[in-house]
Amino acid sequence: MSGAPAGVPDTRANGYNSMSFTATLEPAAAAPARPSDATMSPPPPIRRARTGIADRLFAWAARGAALLTLGLLVAIMASLVVGGWPAIRAFGPGFVTSAVWDPVRQEFGGLVMIYGTVVTSLIALLIAVPVSFGIALFLTELSPAWLKRPLGTAIELLAAIPSIVYGMWGLLVFAPILSAWVQRPLQGWFGQVPVLGALFSGPPVGIGILSAGIILAIMIILFIASVMRDVFEVTPALLKESAYGLGATTWEVVWRVVLPYTKTGVIGGIMLGLGCALGETMAVTFVIGNMNQLGSLSLFEAANSITSALANEFAEAGPGLHQASLIYLGLVLFFITFVVLACSKLLLARLAKGEGTKS
After folding, report:
1. DSSP class of residue 249?
2. Three-class SS of residue 73?
3. Where are the alpha helices (DSSP H) in 32-173?
4. Between vectors from CA 142 to CA 137 and to CA 144, what angle results, nearest 5°?
5. By three-state DSSP, how is residue 193 classified?
6. Residues pairing with 101 in the sheet
7. Of 15, 29, 223, 335, which sees the most CB atoms within 10 A?
8. Rounded CA gap, 189 and 268, in Å?
9. Neighbour tally for 92: CB within 10 Å
10. Which among 274, 328, 285, 332 is positioned nearest to 307, based on CA atoms?
């Protein structure tokens, strides 16, 4: 009987052998599994919505902080203008060229204070910038490893000393030393010289414009040196090592590699120090002499500054022209600071524009 079992096809009728039939019954080799579309689904929509809300909140917060800063700046300027408007209306631009300051006769001029502020800040800058540059250069290029960290930490700690401490030290310690070892010898040597004699004239008490400028220089050296050291350290070591490999000296590496690479930070540090010098109050008040007169151009002449005048007189000034004149002085100081920062930005822009013009 040649029939096939029930339910099984007859392979002989179709020309297939048993082996080929067995092969047809075996399952095919499993193909490598591929991730389906279900397994590659996007993140849940709730998480994406939360991320979008967080980004928008962060953007609004950052924009609000920037607008708040600008708003505070405008509000300060507006409040100074409103508070000083009686003096602005009474004296006008002539306020900055008049040296008269007489609260009894209600005559006010800010030339003495403006002169003292600008001159003391320039003296401080002339002293502080070279010294700060030397400190930063020593710490980054010449200092031994065991001295670098302690000296840098000491400079940062000195920057945290309150300004009133510098003022007291300047009045009680530095002023007598300046009088005995600097002012009196200079007056003895150059007292009869036409120009230098007038430059060093004045009572030998050790307080005045030069003393205030030196105290300011000691204070801002710490800020400028810290900033310069930090920006010098970000110069890539590959650039400096390449210059040394070509035979450059340490000075050439600093002047031709480090300073061009870090000029923005260096100028920013100098402007930071100048801003601190322009706005310093207590240290200057102790050693400048607080005299509202401009008798001579002597460096040892007692003078006054905007900040010291505000500190000494604002609490006692009654409402009216005296108080408005003091606020007018604050507006002038605000304008001086704005001009200094604008000049620094223009200098940086000019330096950036001139890059690549020399081969």
Report:
1. -
2. helix
3. 45-83, 85-91, 111-137, 145-158, 163-169
4. 130
5. coil
6. 108
7. 223
8. 40
9. 9
10. 285
Tokens at 215, concatenated: 């105290």
Please answer whether residues 114 and 332 qualify as being in contact, where contact means their C-beta atoms are separated by less than 8 angstroms. Answer: yes
Quick count: other Cβ atoms within 10 Å of Cβ 204?
A: 16
CA distance 352 to 359: 15
Number of Cα atoms under 13 Å in the Cβ half of residue 54: 6
Contact between 329 and 306 under an 8 Å Cβ cutoff? The reply is yes
Report the alpha-carbon angle 267-268-269, nearest 5.
90
Residues belonging to the chain: 359
**DSSP-H helix ranges across the chain:** 11-14, 18-25, 45-83, 85-91, 111-137, 145-158, 163-169, 175-178, 184-190, 194-199, 209-233, 237-245, 250-253, 259-279, 282-287, 306-313, 321-353
The tokens describing 269, both together, are 């540090």
Q: CB pairs under 8 A, 24+ apart, for 313-318?
A: 313/103, 317/103
Token representation of residue 147: 């001295």
Distances (CA, A) of 352 to 148, 268, 270: 32, 14, 18
> Taking each helix axis from N to C terminus, what angle separates 209-233 and 111-137, rounded to the nearest 10 degrees?
40
Burial of 41 by CB count in 10 Å (0-12 exposed, 13-18 middle, 19+ buried)?
exposed
Average confidence (pLDDT) per 10 residues, the chain, 359 residues: 47 44 44 51 56 86 93 93 93 90 90 93 94 91 86 83 92 93 89 84 88 94 89 87 87 88 87 89 92 84 92 87 93 91 82 58
If one counts every other C-beta atom within 10 angstroms of the C-beta of residue 127, the result is: 17
Distance CA 221, CA 237 (A): 26
Q: For residue 337, what are its two tokens?
A: 């600071």
